[in-house]
Amino acid sequence: MKNIIYPGTFDPIHNGHIDIAERASKLFDELIFVVAENVLKEPLFTTKERVEMIEEATKHLPNVRVSSTKYLIVEFAKQEKAVALIRGLRHVSDFEFEFQMAMMNYHLNPEVTTLLMMPDEKFIHLNSTVVKDVAKLGGNIVDYVPNKVLMCLNKKFDLD
């Protein structure tokens, strides 16, 4: 089996993430979303909430599962016998960071390849911070997040 890891904070998941997952899941036997538990970040949602939102948003994809880790993604990939990591690339400005991460991950585990995929152009401007900021101010994000995420954001920001 050829497994791919889709690591990220996913705070919260949005349709750009899902677009990449849908396309990557067609290329691999299994795609594993891995929610990174980074103590340096202060996510809006708990790890459990993020995992649940991803599970709900990807239930239409039979070869996708969701996990989380506090450790290095390449170590998680080794445990799962994954052959690759997938990362989204929206703009040229993302490339430098993704390149550095890919090179470090390769140095740590040369058995795992990093693939960069661009989302559909209608999601190219999205990131989780923008989604949260617009939602917090009562903006319409219905076209950019799954229904469960919209409901969870409205609840967090007391917008119901």
Account of the 3D structure:
The structure is a single chain. This protein has 160 residues and is of the alpha/beta class. The chain is built from 6 helices and 5 strands. Strands 3-2-1-4-5 form a 5-stranded parallel sheet, with helices on both faces. The longest helix is centred in the middle third of the chain and has 17 residues. The radius of gyration is 15 Å and the shape is globular. The mean pLDDT is 95.
Give a quick summary of the entry.
By secondary structure, this protein is of the alpha/beta class.
Topology:
Elements: E1 3-8, H1 15-25, E2 30-36, H2 47-57, E3 64-69, H3 73-79, E4 82-88, H4 92-108, E5 113-117, H5 128-136, H6 147-156
Parallel strand pairs: 1-2, 1-4, 2-3, 4-5
Features:
single chain, 160 residues, alpha/beta, Rossmann fold, five-stranded parallel β-sheet, 5 strands, 41% helix, 19% strand, globular
Q: CATH H-level name... which superfamily?
A: HUPs
**Adjacency order of strands in the biggest sheet:** 3-2-1-4-5
Low-pLDDT runs of 5+ residues are none
Q: Mean pLDDT across all residues, rounded? A: 95
Radius of gyration: 15 Å
> What name does CATH use for the topology?
Rossmann fold
Q: What proportion of the residues is helical, as a percent range?
A: 40-55%
Q: Any guess at the CATH architecture?
A: 3-Layer(aba) Sandwich
Q: Largest beta sheet, briefly? A: 5 strands, parallel
* SSE order: EHEHEHEHEHH
Based on CA inertia axes, which overall geometry fits?
Answer: globular
Distance between the termini: 44 Å
Total beta strands: 5
CATH class descriptor: Alpha Beta
